Amino acid sequence: MYDPFDLPRPREVQAGEYPVWDEALALVNRDLAALLPDHGPLRLLALPPWDDLDESEREHVYVALPDGRWHGSDLWHGSEATLTSALAAVAEAAQDTVMECLWQVWPVCAEHRIGMHTRQEDGRPVWWCAGGRGPGDPAHVRAAVGELDALHRPRRARRKRR
Question: Which terminus of the chain faces fewer neighbouring Cβ atoms within 10 Å, N or C?
Answer without folding.
Answer: C
